[in-house]
Design brief:
The structure is a homodimer. Chain A is α+β, with helices and mostly antiparallel strands. Helix content of chain A is about 40%, strand content about 20%.
Chain lengths: ~250, ~250
DNA sequence: CGGTTCGTTGATCGTGCTCAAGGCTAGTGG
DNA sequence: CCACTAGCCTTGAGCACGATCAACGAACCG
C-alpha cells in the first residue's frame, strides 16, 4: 500500500522511468514521506546562510528558491514543484547557498542527512568529501546566476576575479597581489555574459581606479578591499565546512 | 607515500579541512588519481549532450565549462581549477548538461561511475534516483544561467514557461493548453532577471502574438510550437535517463 | 468604504550592444 | 632587417533593450 502510494505520488511519476521498483526500494522511498509538514503561503523554510539540517521533498504546492543581494535585489534560482527535493546539496554545506520559501500552501517532508545517508547506505569520509565537492560546485553556479542576473557589469567582473583568487588560494596558490590567469577577454566576457568590447571598458575602469589590472596573462590586484566592496563578495560559499555536516 | 601525495595535491589542500584522514581513506582518494591523461590547450573533454561516462579530477591547468546556444552565443558556466572534480552530476545523466574544455595544457584523471560508486560504497536504485534528482537540479540551474546570460527577455520568458510546463507534465499534471500557475509578475521577473515592468511588456508581446497568455493564476498556451521556437527549447535536460547510468 | 496588492501604461534615461576601425605584440618567412 | 599575418586588445559613434520614475486601473478584502 505504501508502495502503491509511492509510485502514484509526484516523485513516483518522476522516478517511474528508472524501471521496476522492488517493495524494499519502495519502502525506502516511502520512508522519505513519513513525516509531513504543512506550510502557509510565503513561509521561509530555509534561510540563506543558515545551517540546513534537512532537505525537503515537496508533496504539494508551489515553492521557490532565491538569493538576496545586499542592495535588496532578489534572484530566484528556481521553482521547486511537487516531487522535487530541495536542498540536498545543503546537507553537505555549512550554510545554505539559497533561501527556500513557499508560494502557495505547501506540504513537504523533511529529509535529515541521517535519513539520506541511511537510504544511500553510505557513511564514509570520502563520500562526504565528494558530496561536498558537488554541493560547492552547485553553490558556485548559483552565485554566478545571481551575479549575472542582478549585478552590474563592473560589480560582477570584480566578483569573478575574487572568486578565482579565493579558489586558487584554497588549493595553495599564493594570490597576494595577484595571480597568473590565462583567460583572455573573450573568455571572461562569455563567463560574465558581456561582450568582449564592453568587458574591455569595464577593465579599463578597474584599471583607472587603481583597483585591479589584467594584462598578459596576469591579474594584479592593487586594492583588494576596494574590489571586495565593489563585488559585495562573501567567500563563505567556497569554504569547506568547519563543523561536521552530513 | 601515496597518502602524503594525496594531501599535498590541490584536492588534498581543499579537503584538509575535513580533518584527519586515515591511510585507508587516503588510499581511496589516491585511487582517483591512478590513471592520468594530458590534454593540449583548447581540447574538448566533454561535449554537451554526449554521454559522459567519466567525471574528471583536474590536476593541473585551467579549464572551463560552457553551453552553446543555437545562435552561436556561448555561456561559460565556470572555470574548474586543479583540485576540482568536473561532471560528477553527468554520471547520473544521460547526456552532459555542458561542454568541458581545456584552456591551457591540462592534466586530469578520469573517474568512472563505477569507481565513484565503489568509493562511495553505494549501489542502490534509491541512491541512483537521488543522485539523478540532484544532477537534474544542477542542470536546471545551468540552463537558467545561460537563459539569463545569453537570451533576450522575450526568449527567456518563453523558456521559463516551457520549463514549468514540462516539469509539471512529468509529475502528472495535464498541461495541454496551459496550466495553473500561482506566480505573480514580480516573481517571474526575479526569476528572469527582469523588472516586473518590463516583464509586463514582454507578456503583452506574447499575448498580442497569440502565443501565450498569463492571467489570474493561469498560463494559457495558444501556440505551443511558436513558443518552442521562440525559446529554442530542448527538454532533454529535464528527462530521466532512458538507459542505465551510474 | 479605504486599503492593499497586482497589473498596466507612458515618458525618459542609461547600461551595455553593434558596427567599424585601428593598435599592439609575437611569430613567420622573405 | 623588414613585410606580413594572426590574435588580442583598445577606442569611437550610435543605437536598442531594458531600467527607472510616475501614474492610474482593477480586483479583492477588511
Amino acid at each position: 500500500m505504501m508502495a502503491a502510494q509511492s509510485l502514484e505520488s509526484p516523485l513516483g511519476n518522476k522516478l517511474r522511468a528508472f524501471g521496476d521498483w522492488t517493495d524494499a526500494e519502495l519502502a525506502i522511498l516511502g520512508s522519505f514521506s513519513a513525516r509531513r509538514r504543512r506550510f502557509c503561503p510565503h513561509q521561509t523554510l530555509i534561510h540563506e546562510h543558515d545551517a540546513a539540517d534537512d532537505a525537503y521533498l515537496v508533496h504539494s504546492g508551489w515553492t521557490y528558491t532565491y538569493k538576496m543581494l545586499p542592495d535588496g535585489g532578489r534572484q530566484i534560482i528556481g521553482f521547486p514543484l511537487p516531487g522535487d527535493i530541495v536542498g540536498l546539496s545543503n546537507l553537505a554545506l555549512e550554510g545554505s547557498a539559497f533561501s527556500f520559501a513557499s508560494l502557495t500552501e505547501t506540504e513537504v517532508s523533511p529529509i535529515s542527512s541521517g535519513a539520506l545517508m541511511r537510504a544511500l547506505s553510505i557513511e564514509s569520509k570520502v563520500a562526504r568529501a565528494m558530496l561536498w565537492s558537488a554541493a560547492r560546485e552547485s553553490a558556485v553556479t548559483m552565485e554566478h546566476l545571481t551575479n549575472i542576473g542582478r549585478r552590474s557589469a563592473l560589480s560582477r567582473t570584480a566578483h569573478l576575479i575574487l572568486e578565482l583568487a579565493h579558489r586558487l588560494r584554497q588549493i595553495g596558490v599564493d594570490t597576494t597581489g595577484g595571480f597568473a590567469c590565462p583567460l583572455n577577454q573573450h573568455l571572461f566576457a562569455d563567463a560574465l555574459s558581456l561582450t568582449a568590447i564592453h568587458l574591455n571598458r569595464v577593465l579599463r575602469q578597474l584599471r583607472e581606479a587603481d583597483i585591479v589590472v589584467l594584462r598578459s596573462g596576469r591579474v594584479v590586484i592593487h586594492d583588494y578591499d576596494g574590489l571586495m566592496e565593489l563585488a559585495a563578495f562573501d567567500p563563505g560559499y567556497l569554504s569547506p565546512p568547519k563543523r561536521r555536516v552530513l
